[in-house]
Design a protein that fits this description.
This protein is of the alpha/beta class. It has ten helices and eight strands. Helix 1 runs antiparallel to helix 2 and helix 1 runs antiparallel to helix 3. The protein is elongated, with a radius of gyration of 23 Å. Bound molecules: S-adenosylmethionine.
């Protein structure tokens, strides 16, 4: 069996059709020159045997895969993501070692919504089509719920991941569940107005607006509305290129300036979201 066929078999057992047919076959092909063999539809070997076949083939033919790997790692998104994963893992080790982990934000939110919350309303920053709104609103039907978005997309580009205008909805405002008050416009305009009018505390805040300036606007205006014990979820905390420069920086600057305390209470291990509990100020 050739290397390409063995890799194809292996990947097929994991159901990785896309990777099998494109990336890996191309890498093997680039390193080996001959065209990859067509995928085997029905793998007949166990996963471990297939791995052994691949390794054996590489050793026995002295296949040099380094040119293909070098090509792959020249893609800055790959290099940057690896660095982001490493620095995010280091952040967990240093700041959130004993915190519960969840595969996705959905799993984490399910759990957070079962916990006790202080009195107060909910606020969401970065609604887009309303996926999170539709998830959270029914779980807190008696609390007030405020949803903020320009619905014109993000105002700036963000490194390798996001371009200015991404998430624009072309003037369409999504239909959101009953009981949700929608604040349409840029945060720098809508959030200070809300701050002046809102007289309650905030018990649950979901921040998914990607950029440092956007997160900073939310935190700077609203941190003193947070009820002690409130849950604050940052959808874009870590595990993407240059993650430290956005939500993390905005929260750290706030903590430094105000002496507020935020304790990590939930981590996603395949996504970017991290949840914190607001613990008041150092003096309180
Ligand atoms: C990643 S999307 C939100 C995705 C959504 N939470 C979801 O799970 O589907 C980010 C949203 O933040 C909004 N946004 C970012 N910065 C903003 C700002 N300064 N003012 C208003 N909206 C902003 C964008 O319009 C965009 O809809």
């Amino acid at each position: 069996m050739s290397v390409a066929a063995a890799v194809n078999n292996l990947l097929a057992q994991f159901g990785l059709q896309m990777v099998r047919s494109s990336t890996l076959a191309q890498l093997i092909s680039a390193a080996n020159h001959p065209a990859p063999e067509p995928a085997q539809p029905e793998p007949t070997q166990s996963t471990i045997e297939a791995v052994e076949d691949v390794l054996q083939e590489i050793y026995s033919t002295q296949l040099d895969v380094s040119p293909a790997l070098i090509t792959m790692f020249k893609d800055m998104r790959v290099t940057a993501q690896i660095a982001a994963g490493q620095s995010s893992a280091a952040w967990i080790a240093n700041h959130a070692d004993k915190v519960n982990t969840y595969p996705t934000r959905h799993d984490m939110l399910e759990e957070l919504c079962k916990g006790e919350l202080p009195a107060g309303g909910l606020a969401e920053f970065g609604v887009f089509t309303g996926a999170v709104t539709r998830f959270l609103r029914p779980r807190f039907p008696t609390r007030t719920y405020h949803a903020f978005d320009s619905f014109e997309g993000v105002p700036e580009s963000m490194g390798l991941a996001i371009k200015a205008g991404d998430f624009a909805l072309g003037g369409t405002i999504p239909e959101l569940p009953d009981g949700v008050t929608t604040h349409i416009g840029w945060f720098e305009d809508t959030v200070p107005v809300f701050r002046q009018q809102y007289t309650d505390r905030l018990a649950f805040v979901y921040i998914d607006c990607d950029l440092f300036e956007s997160v900073k606007t939310v935190l700077a205006n609203l941190h003193d509305l947070l009820a002690p014990g409130a849950t604050v979820v940052f959808d874009d905390w870590y595990n993407f290129p240059n993650w430290q420069a956005h939500s993390r920086r905005a929260l750290e600057e706030l903590v430094e300036r105000t002496g507020t305390k935020f304790t990590p209470i939930g981590l996603t291990i395949r996504e970017h979201a991290v949840a914190f509990r607001y613990d008041g100020t150092a003096a309180s």
